Amino acid sequence: MTDLKKINLLTGNTGKLKEIKRWLEPLGIEVTLLNKEFIETQVGSLEEVIFQGMEIIKEKEEIQEPFIKDDSGLFIDDLNGFPGVYSSYFQGTVGNDGILKLMEGRKNRTARFKTVIGLMIPGIGVSMFSGECVGTISDEIRGKQGFGYDPIFIPEGEDRTFAEMSLEEKNKISHRIRAIKGLVEFLSK
Question: What's the domain count of the chain?
């Protein structure tokens, strides 16, 4: 993969662009933003969401250069993995207050964040890289850092939520960084 010189990142999130650049540019890979609107399929797993989404994008947009797409979800054990693939929609609809309401009275607060990154290389296909971070759902919203479910997720081995950590602390243990490291290892071979 060392001959790969440019990858487009399909996102509207400039924070993701900055993070991916930080890891891929030292490999000599230029990362550019490809801000395209598309409908994300809601299927059983993040891997399916990424794979189907990348196939749709490739066909409809006729993208001829390698590109990356990622998706993340919060999977709560006592809610049978909900919100999972619906995490973004649920967050935008009822937010962290909605999760805390669903968790009222529940003793098992175990959850995991998962990220899946898909890399589409035209002529070769899709490769996927995933990362997980196990933790628990807090009893209340805590912290001002991060975004999404960060104020209610306490990673294993911590007593703080992601939103109470600095970005550097979060990035050492987060689900997204674990997936990025898999991508970097693949591209370094």
Answer: 1
Domain housing 172: 6-188
Write out pLDDT tens, residues 68-112. 999 899 999 999 999 999 998 899 899 999 999 999 999 999 999
Catalytic residue chosen out of the listed positions 71, 77, 139, 150: 71
> For position 1, what pLDDT does the model report?
46
The string of DSSP letters for 50-112 reads: HHHHHHHHHHHH---S-EEEEEEEEEEGGGTT-BGGGHHHHHHHTHHHHHHHHHTT-S--EEE
pLDDT tens figures, 55-67: 877 777 667 789 9
- Whether 70 sits among the annotated catalytic residues: the reply is no
Domain at 86, CATH number: 3.90.950.10
